[in-house]
Amino acid sequence: MSRSRQSVRPESRFPEPRNADREGLVAVGGRLDTDWLIDAYRHGIFPWPLSDDEPLLWWSPDPRAVIPLGGLRLSRRLRRTLRGGKFAVTANEDFAGVLRGCATGPGREEGTWLTPSMRGAYQRMHRAGYAHSIEVWACPQGQRELAGGLYGVAVGALFAAESMFRYQRDASKVALAWLVAHLNRRGYRLLDIQQHTPHTGSLGAVELTRDAYLDQVAAVVDDPVTFGDRLEVDPSDF
To answer: How far apart are CA 205 and CA 29, in angstroms?
Structure first.
């Protein structure tokens, strides 16, 4: 991405994201406080730092990727896995473990954008009730082992999925399937995944123009929707 920069305006936390270029750099600087992060997500902006030694960068790219909550694609094999009881799935039981897996799991041993400062910020978001995790557990010999998961931020009827990982085959897809089923049952309207990849495209992700995405965000972030204390998923959802 371009390293061109635009300063945060003193009269508000962020400039207008619709004015960013296609790469989407909105602002440089600011803080990883919970109020800054919630303000960012409410306006279709997310943090993506280069490192803890560089100024903090805030982004709203064009186009933007979402997974329609009625459009998740599940293969027959994955549906069998979901219905077969191979994994146990929970929410918010091991947020720290999921964050660690997203930062350092297979293929990420050299580090990711989830710097120590970012991980601390999302831990604070979790304690404040905004950030949530889905844990997928393997249970050999009756002992649970974290097999994969994902985490994201919920604001109104928006869920912004930040990252997912797997230690075992299909575990991250299982986490996503359970998340989508839960979001549908709770009344969520928008699942943001930030950027489209061939992998997310195979699962049903589509791209929106930034303006269309920002319009959808504005329409849902004040909805009286909450994530809840437990997963509300039924096998019939798959």
So the answer is: 31
C-beta neighbour count of 118 within 10 angstroms: 21
**Edge-to-edge, what's the strand order for the sheet holding 46-47?**
25-28, 57-59, 46-47
Q: Which residues pair with 148 in a beta bridge?
A: 136, 166
How far apart are alpha carbons 207 and 187 in whole angstroms?
Answer: 22
Does this model's pTM top 0.90?
A: yes
Question: What would the pLDDT profile of 58-79 be if each residue is shown by its tens digit?
Answer: 999 999 999 999 999 999 999 9
Distance of CA 126 to the CA centre of its chain: 13
- DSSP states along the chain: ------BPPTTSSS--GGGS-TT-EEEE-----HHHHHHHHHTT-EE--S-TTS--EEE--SSEEE--TT-----HHHHHHHHHT-EEEEESS-HHHHHHHHHHSTT-TT--S--HHHHHHHHHHHHTT-EEEEEEEE-GGG--EEEEEEEEEEETTEEEEEEEEESSTTHHHHHHHHHHHHHHHHT--EEEEES--HHHHHTT-EEE-HHHHHHHHHHHTTS-----SS----GGG-
Give 138-158 pLDDT, tens digit per residue.
987 778 999 999 999 999 999
How far, in Å, CA of 133 to CA of 131, rounded?
A: 7
